[in-house]
Design a protein that fits this description.
Helix 3 runs antiparallel to helix 4. The protein is globular and about 60 Å long. The longest helix has 24 residues. It has one domain: Neuraminidase (6 Propeller). The protein is 18% helix and 38% strand. The protein has 239 residues and is α+β, with helices and mostly antiparallel strands. The two termini are 37 Å apart. Strand 5 and strand 6 form a beta hairpin. The protein is built from four helices and 15 strands.
């Protein structure tokens, strides 16, 4: 289980995502290559019970409730799209694609406090990660290859313990292993603003390399604040 993101209703119910039921976070690349096991769940702190609302999500990521709490959005990172699960109305209990074919991999979802959802796109300039959703056979091959490599290194390390073998075992399947590929990517950060009908209305880009790999953007007091687990700084841009 990889608890990822959450949002809370006015009455205290917690809607949250589980990115994978088969891997740990340090096997992030393997999650992208493997089957879709991500989930959307709701937890009621009063009854102390949880319920699975959606499963089969390929790396379930950011989650955000609509302003009237009639539905909740979920970022399906590996497929470059955002899903919507209805909580109220005639469609209650049903899910659908909210926005598809995003120009990057969606991470966290926030709201601008007015009428737009803010969706941050990780690696928008990556040719490698953006091509993966369209190549299922390649994903399967790479997943099996990395799993075989992990098992081989693990076995050798059990016989001849070594810091470097342990490090290699950790790196295989970890997000760090794709870092060398970034030299071929465009140094770009992208965030899209989407209205409540699922239409992209604004697209913000940074192409000078000063800000990259934005995973979350929050609007506050006339500024956008941009964060990322891959960077050692918090960026700020005036709205």
């Amino acid at each position: 289980m990889i608890p990822n993101s959450l949002d809370v209703t006015n009455d205290g119910k917690i809607y949250w995502t589980d990115s994978s039921t088969t891997h740990k976070l340090y096997d992030g690349v393997l999650i992208f290559m493997g089957p879709a096991t991500g989930r959307l769940l709701v937890t009621d702190p009063v009854t102390k019970s949880s319920k699975v609302l959606m499963n089969g999500i390929h790396f379930a990521n950011g989650v955000h409730l609509s302003t009237d709490e009639s539905y909740v959005l979920v970022a399906e990172t590996q497929r470059a799209r955002v899903l919507r699960y209805w909580l109220k109305g005639k469609k209650a209990g049903k899910s659908e694609v909210f926005v598809d074919k995003l120009p990057g991999l969606p991470d966290n979802i926030n709201h601008n406090g007015k009428d737009k959802f803010i969706v941050s796109l990780v690696n928008p300039g990556s040719h490698f990660t953006n091509a993966l959703p369209q190549l299922p056979l390649l994903r399967k091959f790479l997943a099996r290859l990395m799993t075989l490599a992990q098992l081989t290194v693990q076995e050798i390390n059990s016989l001849f313990p070594s810091f470097w073998l342990a490090r290699a075992h950790h790196m295989i399947g970890h997000f760090e292993m794709i870092s060398p590929l970034k030299v071929f990517d465009e140094p770009r950060a992208t965030v899209v603003l989407i209205n409540h009908e699922g239409q992209i209305t604004n697209c913000l880009h940074a192409t000078d390399g000063n800000v990259t790999d934005v995973s979350s953007m929050v609007a506050h007091n006339g500024f956008y604040y941009l964060g990322s687990p891959f960077n050692d700084y918090l960026a700020r841009v005036r709205i």
